[in-house]
Structures are given as C-alpha cells and as structure tokens.
Specification:
10 helices, Rossmann fold, two-stranded antiparallel sheet, HAD-like_sf, HAD_sf, 241 residues, PHOP2 phosphatase
Length: 241
Amino acid sequence: MKFLLVFDFDHTIIDENSDTWIVKCAPERKLPNGLRNSYQPGHWTEYMGRVFVYLGDNGVKEDEMKRTMTTIPFTAGMIDLLGFIGENKELFDCIIVSDSNTVFIDWILKAGDFHKVFDEVFTNPAAFSSTGYLTVQHYHAHHCAKCPKNLCKRKVLKEFLDKQLERGVSYTQIVYIGDGGNDLCPVMFLKKNDIAMPRQGYTLEKRISQLAQSLSPVQCSVLVWSSAIDIMSYLKLLIKE
C-alpha cells in the first residue's frame, strides 16, 4: 500500500510565487515597465529569462538571490505537513511538478531541510552561467493545447507513473495538491479513486467548480484546503484505513 503525493510549488508549498519574489533583488525592488509588459501568455519562461538578464546586468549575484529566495514563507501548516510526510516515507512517494525552476526550488527546500521528503522534482532546468547570470530552459516539449509551452504537468505525471510501473511500483491512490490553472490538466488525468486537493480561493478550485457546473466534473474526488494541516488530517485518515 503506497500513496503518491504530487505537489505544485508556488502558492502551494510556499505562500508566494518564487518568480515574482526574485524581483525584490532588482533596483528599487521593481522591474522597468517595458520589461514588465513584455510577458506574453504561455511564454512565462522566456519572460523570466529576460528578468534574469536584467538582474545580471544590474550586478545581482547568486548569493544575493539565494538570500532573498530563502526568506519566502512556507504556506500555513506546510512545515508540519512536510515533517509528517518525512516521518512516513515508507507509505508516501512524493514529487514536485512546478513551473518554477531547479535553482529556486533547491535553495528553498534545502533551507527548510525538506529536500529529503521529495523523491523527484520536475521543473524548468536553471543554472548560473560562467558570467554569473541565471539562465532557465523549458522543462520539455509537448503537444497539449491547454498548457503553457514549456510544461504540461499531465505529461510529466503520466511519464512518472509509467516509469514507476516498469519498476513494479503502483499506487493505491494519487493525491494531487496545487493551486493554479496549469494544475487542471493533470487533475483531469486522475481516476475515480484519486483525490485532487485545490487550494481554497485559487484558480484551480474555481476551474474545478466551473467544470462541475457545466456538468463535466473531474473523475477524482475533490477536497479543498486552506492550511496544509487540512492536507495532513486527510493523509492521517488515509493511513489509518
């Protein structure tokens, strides 16, 4: 009996968006209008690439970025939840699927000492260049019309499950914890026995309830959370059964 926990990162594990938080490093803690207005829907990764160039051009170095990123607060109850999962790793496999990047997630998980809780992190690859600029790439290519160009979370989840099956690992239930519009695609992939846990008041919850109103509800069960303690309560019930 093993459960798979799938976490989004921004506004789920942390209570902010890591990509917009980095702007605190910019001169006067803001971006010039031209740069801010250059974002095009579906092309967030390219936009962030330009933000990182701007930060690099203004002499923002890796250590300053790291210091800033590790001040992001975890979501209410999340430290307790991740501690609980860490204590019960024999029952839970745990992955992150996020549109952030490897550098930010690695810094934040290590600062909280939570990197051991997660078996794998699927996110946009990032690295510092020889000149000290942070660069970010697309996670993968895909053909899903619903998702941003750089990442279809359903594809990531499906490929992970296929790989696990080849290793002889199958899951009693998948629990998907997220908040954003790009979490809807993987939630629609979940089966009847699985559970989606959208964060209260965020886009994912609204999209799921719109689907229910238009009589095309998701297959899985839905349980809304506002504090990660709500998630922990559910997981405790799950392992009691």
